[in-house]
Amino acid sequence: MAKALLVALWLITAVCLCLFWFHPWWLPALASEQGAPIDRQFKLTFILVGVAFLLAQTALGFLVWKYRTLPSTTSGRQFADNKKAEIFWTVLTSLLFITFAWTGARSWSQSHAAHTTADAKRPVDIEVTGMQFAWYFRYPGRDQVFGRSRPQLQDASSGSAAAIGLDMSDPASHDDFVTTTLVVPINRNVRLTLRAQDVIHSFFVPELRFKQDAVPGIAIPVVFTPDRQGNFEIVCASLCGLGHYRMRAAMKVVSEAEYEDWMAKHASQPAGVHP
Amino acid sequence: MRWGDKPKGTELPEAQLGGGGTNDRFPSGDDGGDDSGRNEDGRLSYRDRLMRCRLGLGLSMISILMLFIALSTAYLMRQHAAVEHGNGSSVILWQKLQLPPLLIFNTILLLISSITLEIARRQLLRRALFAPLSDIPGIRQESSRALPWLAITAVLGIGFLAGQAIAWNILQQEGMFVVGNTSGSFFYMLTGAHAIHLSIGLLALLYALGGEMFSWKLETRCLVLDITSWYWHFMAGLWIYIYALMHFS
Amino acid sequence: MNPVAASAASASRPMNTESTRFLTRYVFSRDHKIVGLQYFFLALAAALVGMFLSLLMRIHIVWPTAKIFGIGNIAPESYLALVTMHATFMVFFVLTLAPQNAFGSYFLPLQIGAPRMAFPKVNMASFWLAFVSFLVMLAAFFVEGGAPISGWTHYAPLSAIPSAGPGEGLGMDLWLVSIAIFCIASCIGAVNFIVTTIKFRAPGMTWMRLPLPCWAWFVTAFLILSAFSVLLAAAAMLFMDRHFGASFFEPSGLMVAGQMVQHQGGSPLLWQHLFWFFGHPEVYIAILPGMGVTSHLLSTFARKPVFGYRAMVYATIAIGVLGFGIWGHHMFTSGMNPHAAFAFSNLTLAIGVPSAVKVFNWLGTLWGGRLRFTTPMLFSIGFVSLFITGGLTGPILAQPALDSYLHDTYFVVAHLHLIMGMAAVFAIFAATYFWFPRMFHRMMSEKSGRIHFWFSFLGAYATFVPMHLLGMAGHPRRYSQLTEVNYLHKLMPLQMFISIAAFVTMAGQFFFLINLFWSIFRGKPSNPNPWEATTLEWEALPQGRDIQRGAYEFGRDDMGRDYLPQAGLLQLKSTIKN
User: Fold this and answer.
1) A80, A149, A217: residue with CB nearest B84
2) For the whole model, what pTM was predicted?
């Protein structure tokens, strides 16, 4: 039995380590500047955790095998504590966890401070509204001011700016337009203001390496800088009801030129929901 | 060896191997559990029963206190977030509570009931002190002096609860409901939770009253009344805290 | 002889001389052993319900259109109800009841040398309240709308607005009522445990001579006392929001199902703070008794004292205390203040230190021992391994930068299942196999136990380690169907593997069930101390003697045994060989 345990523990350890080392399924390719420190921190943390895992499970397997009772075994050594050992591994573990705390905090601040050289330009402001079960994205248009919206005006079924309750009596609303696809230009800071209409949702794009809950009653800003063109999926990452699994939207990161074209096209159309 | 005797020859730390066999003892001289003070016939002494019940009550108070701490923290947190910004408009959400003066009257009722309960308890204790004398021929114990005070306490307690119900009514007539009013919701929540817990105390009080009326064993009556009175004083103190919280914040 | 009667009759002190009427003896019993068994079987029933729900879940994830015999096709709202109720039954009715109330009620008085619990009627009442709570929770499946769908965490406003989803009407109300009753049951039970431990220890049973499970039950009781009250407050407030128009948790301006919601002025984050203030100590309530039992069993079957007994006691207390300060790590992405996030993160990492100290001490207990690989020992070793694996993903999730990605993905599901779903459950299995002879005076089959162990141990790893990869790939939790999101399609092979592994693991549990019930009636009769353990439940303290030694003393005594029962007389040094 001891041998079986040893083999099982060491085999499990080896398989787990291989699985995490070769990771056939893993983080998708990065698409934001803010994600780079996160990825570095993942790597560091997994290496440290992996070493601890290897040592602990190997030790367990070894001890279980070494100290199995054999016919020849006399009564074991009866030591029951060792103050030096306790201090040693308490200090060691504390150092390890302090490392996690410190590097983790550092990667968080690096991520939040990351900005492009192009931040002289205004950030691209987009208001994201989550509702059961869709995402809407409102652009402030040429005046770069979001017009007023009121919950009483919300009417998702009419499929226009009414979905987020855009109040057309506010002049700033006239150039706002609402889309169901998030289009952002590459290498520009994008500031999303997250809102929710009914229950808690969560805006998550794995390639950007962050998620942020959209909480009713609060407007939560989050900034990222896409650095890779392509199409990405936005999913909802907070249980919001029946349709939680199909609450998704598309995010397109396009070149600056394409973005300007796209903006111009929408600016010339009346306020409403655009694809 | 009997319960309560000190064991002999137990100061040999080197003979004890690991497993925490150190020689720490409580200063009281009792080893291990505190419940070693048994009577001649092996039954637990009144003191031990009382201490055990008081400890149980104290722990229950911690639990009840945590409930009210949770409510109070939520109350204070919401009060500070009194303005909501959403969709471009601001909504002032927190209407300052106008506590009806009736609550002050209720508070006085409750405080007086604490005093009367304490009188009842001491009366019963006095009776218990003289209980051993009742065996002597020619000495007669007078009927329980605690009973009327207990009854008064119960009446005051019911009066308090009735007063709370009236206070609720007054507030509803003034238009302060749970609906649409955050501070109102907290008021009803805090006072309601207190009233429920006080009702438990009232039940205990009625139980003690029953004990007096039907002359149960004196020891049991003392125990029940002691625990009930601690709980009742706790409820009174809790009410002072709740009232102060709502009044001063 | 009826095994249950036998166990009841074998009280070491003849205090329970009740009438032999069935009701007072076996149903409304004040005998702590009967109450312990009642809790045990209640937890077992809940575990079977919870396991069945997870079976349905895993079938639905990989075969969404499958029709299940007797149930038909599982609709998305049913899946979410399964998720909610699986977690509810497992966390509350299995992981809170079995380690603490079942084994604690039975064995705390025995291990401390007490004739009974401090308040036997309270013990009985707390069981029956828990039983009623269980029935009310089951009823949620059968009412209109079905069971709630907002997850066991029931974030508002989803849980507060009945029109926000099916099952959020009466089903949610029943959930709240059930849990409110459960909170009361737990709190009064905890009072009992604490008073018993403080007041009813046998003479000579000092604090530092207590067996470690007793320490664990003691600290856990304090956690229960403080945490469940907060849950009760939160549940009451949610109930007021739902039925009395209060707005503790809903802000103004909500539009649900095409209707403006008439709440205003509340905060969804308030629910999260209150819930997790309870929720985090709850997971320590689930694991601490298991840690105590593991220490106890590793020592017993290594024939060696627990390594670092004092350190273990301090670590238990540290985990209990620190556990109250780290609830915010469930809320890193909630919109909370980042400074608060870092305070919670640092404290969360800090709690890893006493946990790691415990692991080192378990390894130290094994080192130099003479290991006996009985079934309880196998499960205890399994506990250590699973706790290492599950615990090591804690520091990953404790960092807000990383949790910002991993929150609400399958990575969290992997972490919580390895620690709670497997390690804590392994401790329950170990305790069952270990204490079975004491409860029923028969032995469980070792062979069957070994098969059960291997199925469970390998199955646990096979089922939950791949979930980490799902999480790293960004697979969100609580998705009732995986067909809509494109990037999930390539993860289906992994989900299929997990489901198969789960089916196999669940199948392996039949070895346990059959073994358990068969052995109760037809198991091999055991002698009073089959494991040669030291503590008082195996060798009772004779009338009039004091406790003279610690709980974990091993070494040759003059009768040729390699252990020194805690109930025994103190040996002179010369007769003990090292």
Assistant:
1) A217
2) 0.91
